[in-house]
Design brief:
The chain is built from 13 helices and ten strands. The protein is of the alpha/beta class. Strands 1-2-3-6-7-8-9-10 form an eight-stranded parallel beta barrel, surrounded by six helices. Bound molecules: ribose-5-phosphate.
């Protein structure tokens, strides 16, 4: 039976101003994981800041060569050393990312439908052994709460979590939103919490301007913010700033970096916001300064 609306305010219910304690490890909810799992998480999340700047370039798995990812050898390989972790498919990793890349890699592990079909109809699309063979620091999977194939996508995630737990491989659940679905704090609280309850080691979700702190507060594992559609740079920096100030453990951004007219400058500015709490206006100045220099 659906829960009745609580008369208490969100502030009273979620107490977002009180961060969850993280005994045993620097990431919330991860203190009781195994050594290998923690070690992989510590490759993706910087233990100093407790946060990460992941570069999401996996879009081709259902979108093909989308804007900014037409030539990953030319556009993405030069950006890879600037992120904390690359989120990509195994196909791009093997074909295009040089094996001397030192950045950790989180591999997209779901797939099936293209943009021409119902996206929630996904399957697990990678064997855990291949992720280990590729020295992955994690695997990621889409979860479609409220989608047509909700149960299938949730069970895909739980199967992947079982495999991940067996081998010490953290699983990132990505809360996917259908075209016509409401994107508000209530929905993302529901989606993120379901992913965490069913075993995801961290969750990637979208920013909402109202109540993002209640999403992070009610999710007992780290949340990384997905970037979403391309925004003007100052807006994207402001969104990232607000997300980490409101409890996100970093970002996993794609289009707002690789579709920027100065991707290297943008990722440098995002890094300052995420790791050093730089204010958006200052980070935007940094972006503009770097953009003015050749090769940004
Ligand atoms: C989501 O379906 C994609 O797999 C991307 O990983 C995700 O959307 C993040 O990229 P962006 O910041 O472009 O939204």
């Amino acid at each position: 039976m659906p829960e009745a609306e609580s008369p208490a305010s969100d502030e009273q219910r979620y107490q977002a101003e009180i961060p969850m304690q993280t005994p045993g490890f620097f990431l919330k909810g991860c203190g009781q994981l195994d050594w290998g799992m923690k070690n992989r998480l510590a490759r993706v999340f910087d233990p100093k800041s407790g946060r990460t700047v992941m570069l999401a370039v996996d879009h081709g798995y259902f979108q093909g060569p989308t804007t900014g990812l037409e030539r990953m050898d030319l556009n993405i390989v030069p950006l890879a050393p600037l992120c904390d972790a690359l989120f990509c498919t195994r196909g791009i990793l093997r074909s295009t990312i040089p094996a001397d890349n030192r950045q950790p890699v989180v591999l997209r592990a779901s797939g099936g439908p293209s943009i021409l079909k119902e996206l929630s109809n996904e399957e697990i699309a990678m064997d855990i052994e291949d992720a280990i063979r590729l020295n992955a620091a994690g695997i990621g999977i889409q979860v479609f709460i409220g989608g047509e194939f909700e149960t299938r996508s949730v069970h895909n995630m739980t199967k992947l979590v079982d495999m991940g737990n067996r081998y010490g491989m953290p699983v990132m659940a990505v809360t996917a939103v259908g075209k016509d679905m409401v994107r508000d704090a209530r929905y993302f609280r529901l989606a993120c919490r379901i992913c965490a309850e069913l075993g995801a080691h961290y969750v990637k979700t979208y920013f909402v301007p109202d109540g993002f702190g209640t999403i992070t507060a009610s999710c007992p594992v780290p949340i990384v913010m997905a970037g979403g559609k391309k925004l003007p740079e100052l807006e994207a920096l402001t969104m990232a700033y607000r997300a980490v100030q409101e409890g996100a453990s970093g970002v996993d951004m794609g289009r707002n970096i690789f579709q920027s007219d100065a991707p290297k400058a943008m990722i440098a500015a995002i890094r300052e916001v995420v790791h050093n709490n730089m204010k958006p206006a200052r980070a935007f100045d940094l972006y503009r300064g770097l953009k003015a220099k050749k090769g940004a």
